[in-house]
Amino acid sequence: MLVQSPQNLTDISPARERVLDAAEQLFSQRGYASVTMRAIATQLQMKVSSLYYHAPNGKEELFVAVIMRNVQRHEQGLREALASAGSWQQQLYSAAHWLLAQPSLDMGRFAMIDQHALNSEHAEQIITGMYTALFAPLELVFAEAQARIGATTPNPFVLAGAFVALVEGFRNAPPPPSSFPLNTTQALDSVLAVLIKGLEAG
Questions:
Q1: CATH number of domain containing 110
Q2: Residue 18 falls within a domain, yes or no?
Q3: Radius of gyration (Cα) for the chain, nearest Å?
């Protein structure tokens, strides 16, 4: 059974928000398999039985709710970042800067570790949500760019995936040494400039 997400993030009650915040912190630090309902209850200073009020089906339901809330945040924020920019080139820079400033959805860890501990329906729900939140908005930008310049390859979906992987790489990399002339954002921008020039060249 799929875990239902609220239509709007503001629809989450303060009590549930507190539970999801505590669970998110522990899942982020330890991973899904290493966190127990008791650990989450202890973090919240509540009884385990009270925690089941928010997640009657246990830890997996709570984990999916945490991830899908984060997915919704990313989709909303990314679409706002794209809408605030003008040209497709500016949209790519705006999207990259926004994503760089956010906590990672950690798609890699989920794909390699966490999804194997979930039932297939929940794993598919999360994977679909992640791709819809991150890839779909960027795919539209790349499709528009290709339409404007008359290019047909690479596939916009492939470009969206490469874009997300690029930003993730810069986010997860250690900061450059003080002797390096560029900070992380500037270094990312320099690589984006190469990508954009390649697209403009068709």
A1: 1.10.357.10
A2: no
A3: 19
